[in-house]
Amino acid sequence: MKDLFLVTAHCDTPEKEDVLRGLINDLQKVKESFDVMLFSHVAIPTDIARKTDYSFYDKKNELLYDWNLRSKPWFSPGNSGAILSVFCGFHSSQLACWRMIILGNMIAKGLGYQKIHHIEYDTRVHDFSEMFDNSKILDSDEAVVYDYKEGEHVDSLPLGSYFCYRIDSLHPTLLNLDEESIKGMIKSSETKSSENMMFGFLNANNKCVVKKAQDLFRGNEFMFSHKFNKTTHISWCLPYYEESLDTLSFVAWNREKETDIEITLIYNQAKTISFKVAPGHWRIENIDSYQNADKLTVMLDGKIRNHFDFNEFREEFKEASFRNDHSKNRIKSSYNVNTMIKVEDTFRTIPEWPHTQVGSEVMINEGDVVDLGCLGWDWSGFFIGKKRVIGADPFCEEIDGAELYKGVVGPYDGNTRILYDGLCSSIISGKGHEVEMLSWKSFCQTFSIDKISILKINIEGGEYGLLNTMDSEDFLKIDQIAVSFHDWTNPLWEKQTLSTINLLEKNGFLVEKLECEWGWYLARKKPLENLK
C-alpha cells in the first residue's frame, strides 16, 4: 500500500491558500507512491480538494487562552539564562493541531495505511529524496523526526513541519481523540512545547530516528507562515519576573522586523519608559521591585499590546513569565532521550512529564533500574543502555537492552487476575486475565537483583500489598522508589497511602509528592546514606 501524506492546514487568508495550493501541487509529483489526506479548520477550495485523495473540513478550531495552557517558549539573551513566558503570543492553537493529527491518524488506520508522513501546509517540497528514504527507515524503525534550531538563543527542537511514523506502533494517545486529556498533558508540561510532547509519543519505544533538519531543508522550504507574521507580530516584547533580583523586568527582542521597534512602558500609571530596539537586537529593563508592581501597559509601535494588573494575578504571573535559578541552569535539547532536565539535584526521565522526576544520584550509584508496570517502557526507556533495566508487566513486549518478567510482582507467589483494556489495568477487581505473580523476594532472586538504584511502581493499586510485605533488608537494597499511589481511584485507600509513606520514612526514605492528579511520589534515601 502507498504511504500517506497527512497535510494539516489553517488557511484563513488568500496568501495562505496559495501556499497550500503550491504544496498540494508539489505532492502530485509523487502520487504513484504517496496518497494525500488534507485536514483543515477552514473550508478547502474545490481546486485544492480535487487534487487530494481525501479532504476533511473540521469546523471546530478551539483556541486556548488560559495561561497554563499556552505555549511557554524561552529565550536566553546573551546566554545569561533562559526567560520563559506565555506572553509571546495571545493564545495557543495547539489543541486544534493535536485534533487534526489524531483524527487523521484514526481515519488513516481505518483505511489500512501503514506509514504516515505528517506535513504542515506552509511547505514547498521540490526534493522528495528524504521522504523516500524515511519510508525505508520505517520498515524497521517506528518514526523519524528532524532536529531543528532557529538561532543561537533558543533550544533545538524536533521540527514540527514534517515528521513521519508507523501506524501499527503509534502511541494510543495519537489514535484516540480525548481533548480533556490533551489539555491535561499541556497543563502539566513546563514548556508547553507540542514538538517535545510529540517526540515523547513517537519515541515511546526508543525506536525514533533523529536526523538533521539541514538534510530535509536541502531543496525544500518550510514554515512559510512565519513570514506572514513578520510585520504584524513581535514575539518577545513582554514583562517577566526576575527571581534572583525579585524585580519586575521587561525583555524585547526584535528578530521579526527589518526596522526598529518602538516600545513604551507605562508603569503604575506614573512612570514612563521608552526605548527602541534595532533589528536583530534585544534589550532588558529592570523596572522595579516586584512587590511594588501594580499595573503595566505595554505599547509597541504606538499601539497597546498588553495591559497587566498584577494585583489580580501576582503569584500566577511569577509562574507564567519568569527567569529563575532553574531556568538559568536548564540543559538544552530537552526533548532528547539522552538529555536530563535538571531541577536542583533531580531530572525527569521524560522531560514533559513531571511525575517522571528522579534523583540524579541514580546515574552515580551502583544498582539496577526496576520498573514494575513497565508497559511501553516510557518511564524507564531513558535508562536503557546506561544501566541494567528489569521490567515486570504481563502485557508488555520485550525490548532490546532490557529484561522482562511477563507477570506481576506482588505480596505472594502464585497467580492473580488483571483487567486490561489496552491502556490501563486493574489488579484489585479479581477479574480478567489470569497472570503469574512473584513475591518481591522471589522476583529479586529470579533476576539476581542485589542492589537497586531506583524502583518504579505503577501497578494499579497493588503497590500497597507489595510495599507492606517488604522488610528492612529489602528496603536497604533500594536507593529510590518512584511510586503511584492509586488513592485517586478509591478515596478509601488514602489511609493506606499515609501508612505506606510512614513505612518508607521509617526505613530511611525522604518522601516527596511529585504531582497530585496521578498520585506520584518520590522516596529517596536520606542524603548522608545515599549521596556519594
Keywords:
single chain; alpha/beta; Spore Coat Polysaccharide Biosynthesis Protein SpsA, Chain A; Immunoglobulin-like; Rossmann fold; 3 domains
List the helices and strands and how they pair.
Layout: E1 3-9, H1 14-27, E2 34-40, H2 46-49, E3 54-57, E4 74-75, E5 83-85, H3 94-111, E6 115-120, E7 124-125, H4 129-137, E8 143-149, E9 156-158, E10 162-166, H5 179-188, H6 194-202, E11 208-212, H7 213-217, E12 220-221, H8 225-228, E13 236-242, E14 247-253, E15 261-267, E16 271-277, E17 282-289, E18 295-300, E19 303-309, H9 314-320, E20 321-323, H10 325-328, E21 341-343, E22 346-348, E23 357-359, E24 368-372, E25 389-392, E26 403-405, E27 408-410, E28 414-420, E29 425-426, E30 433-439, H11 440-446, E31 452-457, H12 463-467, H13 472-476, E32 480-484, H14 494-506, E33 509-515, E34 520-525, H15 527-530
Short description:
The relative contact order is 0.08. The chain is 22% helix and 32% strand. It is of the alpha/beta class and 532 residues long.
Task: Explain what this protein looks like in three dimensions.
The chain is of the alpha/beta class. It has 3 domains: 3-76 and 87-227, Spore Coat Polysaccharide Biosynthesis Protein SpsA, Chain A (Alpha-Beta Complex), CATH 3.90.550; 233-324, Immunoglobulin-like; 340-530, Rossmann fold (3-Layer(aba) Sandwich). It contains 15 helices and 34 strands. Strands 1, 2, 3, 6, 8, 9, 10 and 11 form an 8-stranded mixed β-sheet that branches. The protein has a 7-stranded mixed β-sheet with strand order 26-25-24-31-32-34-33. The longest helix has 18 residues, at 94-111. The chain starts with a strand and ends with a helix. The relative contact order is 0.08. Residues 327-344, 421-430 and 528-532 have low confidence and may be disordered.
